[in-house]
Amino acid sequence: MRRALRALAVGLAALAAGAGLGVPSPAAHAGLPRPAKVDARVVEAASRAGAGGTLDLVITLDRVADENLSSRLQALGTWSWTFRHLPVAGIRLPVKRLDELRRTPGVRAIYLNRRLRYELKDSARLMNTARAWGRGITGKGVTVAILDTGVDFTHPDLAPAMKANVKLVEFGSPTPVVPVEGIQNSDTTSGHGTHVAGDVAGRGTQSGGAYRGMAPEADLVGIGAGDALFIFTVVEGFDWILANREKYGIRAVNNSWGTEFEPFDPDNPVNVATRKVAEAGIVVLFAMGNSYDELTMNPYAAAPWVIPVAAGTKTGTVTDFSSGGLEVSLPGLKFDGRPIEGETRRPLDLGLYHPAVTSTGENVVSTRSNTTLLPLLAVTDDASLGPDAVWYTTMSGTSMATPETAGVVALLLQADPSLTPHQVRQVLEITARPIPGVPFWKQGYGYTDASAAVELALSLRDLPPSEKQARLDSLHAARDRALLDSFSHPTRTYAFEDPAPTGPGSVEHKILVPAGSRRVKVVTNGPIAILLNAARYDITLLDAQGNKVGDTLGQGLNISSGTYILDLDLKKLAEDESEAAKRYSELKWGEWTVRIEADLSPALPSPLRDLPIEDQPKKSIHTVAAVFPEPPVSCSPVQAFVPTEMKSFLFQDDRAEGVPYPANPKYTYVGPVPDGSLGNRRPLRYLAGTFGVVNTEVPGPEPVFSTPPLESPLTVGKLAVVETWIQGVPGVRGLLRGQLIDIAPDGTAKAIASMPENVPAEAAPDAPARTRAVVPIARGYTLEKGHRLGVRLGVTFIGTTANTLYYDSDEFPSGLSVLAGGMVSVNPCTGERVAAGAQGAAGRQAEVAARVAELPVTGGWRVGLPLVLAFLGLGVLGWRGRRA
Fold this sequence. Notes:
- By secondary structure, the protein is α+β, with helices and mostly antiparallel strands.
- The protein is 22% helix and 28% strand.
- It contains 19 helices and 39 strands.
- The radius of gyration is 29 Å and the shape is globular.
């Protein structure tokens, strides 16, 4: 036994050192078969299992297995399964035969059968389906496969859509994959797959059509992988799709599942499978993931032949939780530290790590499985659904955004059945609505616009194939050029992969920062901190002489994603301009050091320490460092907002029924605050209301107050100020949140600006206390005639539901103030105005500045004159600008 263990240790060391990790061996140079690539998790699992153990593996092959290769695999393992349509196999292998497996002809790469995870009424308006539906484009004749926990086709909204329902076998089972005939409900635990199916093609039968999916006449195939999702199972699902695509007319497959970030690997069994499915003409969609930050996207969504989807809010922006890709492009697939010189992005190739589009993923109402009490990703907001909660439930996540997009794909394929998967992605990207202020790596090409996409597809339907592709390429290149013009372009990019420390430790890497560089950005993603007792992964940047340039020590603990970001403008290393200039002049250019320090606490109990390898979080730290030059200076005229007046509105409720509360008879209590209006009606009404049930688990309704339809366009900019008066229990402080929104005549809401973070809300027990919060507006924004200016307002108080919002009162004037004005063209080099606009602005600058300067906010700072000048821009007010 000791000899066997020693031999195993030597073999595993060889694998870890690269002999089986894609590094050419001497045998390969001698013309002998090259050993298969072995994933690092396999090496670790083999070490833990010991010489007498077994491994559950999924392996990619260089071809679909023939009888000879299948027999060889059966002889090696205690159980094996080769798929009929994919060059992939599953095998339960004795550890002692791992080296024999990797040297078997036909075996390309070896992976552990890892556990994966699911990525968890207004969507139709947000994604603009009305015009498409009005033209009879409802997904009819198109079948979408749902590879998920299963689907409950006993639901009246889903029963008419059912084409087939399949339950997949577990790894190691000798039973072949067969459709579950006569059993309509395969989603008996979480309800995740049933919700997803309704997002795609729910009929809305039980809600009078209110909660229809994006393609309410499409057909569905349910492929139940269960809640314990593994690589083998999903590959099994893709193999079944290839075998049955013609029988059921399958044109798209939705995948609301994935895993933590890792570099894209084309040999991974999942990526091999999705490529074959896409090559068969089936559109493959993947959720981006719900890990919040940059460098956290689902790696299966990075495949260039799939459509990755981010989650959007109900105000038309991107949710906080939606995973992000990368600001810079990485053309190489390995994080091996080799520098990438210059800009690598070019039209039609903007890198792998970003969404294609954003679709609604916030508080999406869809079908509830009748055998599950609480869906896995429920937002517990179902009380607002009333009686509909029997049939429907609310969930949030990229798990919901992806099937919303899959429904739109069904619309496109009805509009033009000849579209290829690549062309479908092009159509979605070309027609998506850009989201102002959100980076490309977070939103992709923008918010999905179903009707615009359908219109483009219809216009292409009768074109010859070559002409169709040429037109799409031209339109797509135009979008790409516009994006490239808006990007910062690095001079050098580095990507590193390091084993995550098991205790306190650090890793260092060298990057070249040439003289005159303007910006350095370092992004690192390690194991999610709370899972491995990692307090943080801090970044420190040192110049060529070891002087500290910056670090992330002040960023606080990030336990949600494992990502930390150090993004330094080298000319703004200090707030004081003279000190910043001094620090820049003292930088020592050349080889700089990126240090990543893992601050772990091994003494703390780790609930995951003894889990099987396939259940554990990632074991690597991935780091991307980019160096940017001084941005080019353009003297082309730019649009600048100039304020001319401040408009103030009060929050008013037009539907108060009146319940005597509080004791002051001057006020009328209206219960949980409903939506209301923004106005200055006389005489004023004296109303009070609560935000309903407000705690961390069951968020109360967030009312929207809006103006009447605008009689003429309104341009707002720089800032808005929200004022609230709140009465609460002693010693309780809450958090105020808010968004300024543009509401179109059809009810679609688009975010103009948001509070930068939750604002501490004052609440006093004896009388209402005032909280004023600034909402910065990055650039001027014009609301069109007929639109309404609105504000969505929310407040959270921990431990009480008795906090009351007072509004529409002279004494307690809760409301909104915005700067209104116009746009002018300004030469950014000279600051001179080069076109007329905002007439009369100059004469009213002092009045506007004085009014804003009087507005204090909480948090220990005031909107005084320095802040006014910062927000309003001294150069613009004086018709002069500053050089960028």
